[in-house]
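PROTOCOL LOG
Step 1. Enter all chains and additional molecules of the complex.
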Amino acid sequence: MDTITSCHITEIFRLIALRLSEARVELGALDGAIGDADHGNSMAEGFAAVVRATSATSNASPAELFMLAARSFHSAVGATTGPLYASAMMAAGVDLEGKAALDATDVVRLVPSFARGIAQRGKAQAGDKTMMDAWGPAARAAVEALNMCLPAQQCMARAEAAAREGCESTRAMVASVGRAARLGPRSLGHVDPGAASAAIIIAALQEWLARQDDARAEGAG
Amino acid sequence: MLPEQTSRSAEKDEARMPMRFGEDPLLWASWLYYEEGLTQGTIAEQMGVSRPTVNAYLAEARARGIVTVEIVPEKFSSLSIARALRDRFGLQDCLIIPTEGVDRPLIPRLGEAAARVLTRTMRSGDTLAVTWGRTVLSLADQIGPLNLKDLRVVQATGGTTARIPWTPEACASGLAKAIGANAIPISAPAIVSSPEIRAMLMQEAVLAEQLTILGEANKIVMGISSLRPESTIHTSGFLEGAMQQMHYQGAVGSLVGRFISPRGEPVIGPMHDRTIGLSLEQLRQIPQRIAIAGGIDKVPAILAALRGGYISVLVTDLATGRGVLAAEGHQESPRRTLVQSDTPLLRRTEVKKLINDPKDAVDEALQGALAAHEDLIEPVPGSPRAVRATMGPSQGKVAIVIGGGAGHEPAFWGYVGPGLADAAVIGNVFASPPPDPIIAATRAVEGGAGVLYIYGNFTGDVMNFDMAAETLEAEGIEIRSIITTDDIASAPIEMQSRRRGVAGNVFTFKIAGAAAARRLPLDACEALARHANARTYTMGLALEPCSLPETRRPSFELGPNDMEIGVGVHGEPGVERRGLDKADACADLLLDRILAELPCTAGDEVAIMVNSLGSTPNYELYIVLRRVRQRMKARGLKVHRSLVGGYYTSLDMVGLSLSVLHLDPELKVLLDYPCRSPALTISA
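Step 2. Run joint prediction.
Step 3. Record the structure below.
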């Protein structure tokens, strides 16, 4: 894999924004079942703002780019997702401090970085029926795979599978924090929209990495 | 002759159908059978037909829906949920008990139900393994002698030294004694300090023999532990802080001291090789595996155990059983009825809205509001979502900054003006504003005497206002936050701090605004605002959901004859769904809940607000107000002020909320203090 520079990072944000935008209605419907139906739009608008901000800058280091992404997401979204994803991207920025370029495993490491930022800000526990129920398992799967020195692609695939499964497992959970908490047992049977959008973001990261590999294979061919 | 004729015609009349049955022999037969309790033979005589005909009439009456026979809903639900669980997870049997007990809490009732199941299933010569826990101990306490021969009860795991009454030792010995069985303990701790020690212990003849007996168990009765923070497993000594370890974060439940994932797969961690007792694989080999577990917090754990095939007989309660099925995606089939339920009156499609690009809706609406009320409010320069009073900052006055999502118009800009808030910050639809405009608004109105933030209790608002406050406090601006919690439907009274803040906010804005206008210091303004919030009670109901500008879809589904009780102001569903009722009944429903919490005595004064959630017209609000005033009068409460209208809306939701502020002399003075703002003006 060639090195990943700041303009690639903007590309990653663009892909995430695209996938979230496609899922707007679906996420809104999930949210409508247990919340106020705005989650799909918030996420799509938030990442659209990130793309606008990051593509308008040049010469920013990856760390600076993530800090900028955090601020622009937060300003565009507010709400609960604003502070949470801002913290996620700031955590990634901190972890990338001093790096001029990334490699593929750094992209995988975005998952545990994001998860850490969200956990610190939101303080949700596993099983609370929040986005952490996707980010947590994904981060653990990513770290475990990285520790086994698997190729970045495989690490990301494991993270993605864990996120998807974690998201599905929220169906069996009763929300205990956030707006859905007021619904109590009525939240059972519904997938948490925050976990669903988390799974989409992680899938987009995987998709982007896979494309790089394909492109390289073509280039080599 | 005459008398004879009369008597003959009377006799004939008796065989003729009384008019009230409208020439319907089915109805007549049904009445005599079900209401008068006559036998079919007597009915045949009375109707002048044969007994088989009566029988056919009665069958036909049921088929045509003249007579309906139904099992009471609670029992019906229990049976249908039990059957669905059995079918879905291939159980041998399933027993569902009511969730709400008439006399006793859930655990002893589950124990009693399990005792009944066990009494019926045990046979002479059985070896029954038993786990630990409150429910299992309760079972042991309630089961009687079984009069069976050669029973053995064996501990399913090693023991624990935890100071709990429901240890494995206590459960196994208690149950053995109660049913007259031979008790076989496991003479080792459930969790030992290392795999090596476990290996050594397993060599010990006594333990080896006990474990062999455990391996011979043909039945097991077990509890299921949730791993949620509130679970008693955390105090049992079984976990040793294992939940902090990464290996177990993927686990959602525990049974026989082992951990399982949401799919029911074993979660193997460092404790695995240190655990003495039944393995999950061994558990699955036991022919009859009776699980007793109830409580909504256990749903993920029970579901995981069912998916993993560890259970063959489940004893649980209705809410939990229903929760497990809901989590599995099962749709509860409606009761079979003869009459088809009403089809929705109108198919829901896109809701019509007077907007341009939905993305611009919030800004355009705000621009319009600023234009309409330019004498009172203006934008904060450089921060279009922040609005301040045209009078500008006042030196030495506490500044009040309020805010929240858009969609609640006239909140929040409607409460900015003299005697009310100094600034308001608006987020996206139903979403908290981010810190930047909050910071800009605060700086624009701060007058050196400190700032009071007032906003509803929602996770997003709390995070964003707190982040703004942190930034500003570092600059030396003193900020206090009042997080309003007036919505009594959103959490029980003992969890008041978790309640959300809704329309009653307006009262808190008013009291705080008056306190600040009277130049009271920050401490006093804060205390009065808290006092007002603590004495404000709101409850709402919706007849139709609202729809967001982006989606143009109803934010939740509400049937044509339903209403949603306890809705919030963000289109989120409420706490309960009920059949639609009339205005007075709705008013009573809301008021009764409020009065149940309001610590008032006759002669007390209150202010009330009947607030439209968006689409309910004023004339309906006045119908409700009228009823509320009647009830207040009957209760001996004096209504000092009534506000009626759309004060705090939820886009186009159809419905209303009722807020009551329990006044005292101080609050009354502040409520009457003059104010002027786009949405609330009180003259001197």
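Step 4. Note key features.
Residues 1-14, 335-348 of chain B have pLDDT under 50 and may be disordered.
Chain B touches chain A through 57 residues (CB under 8 Å).
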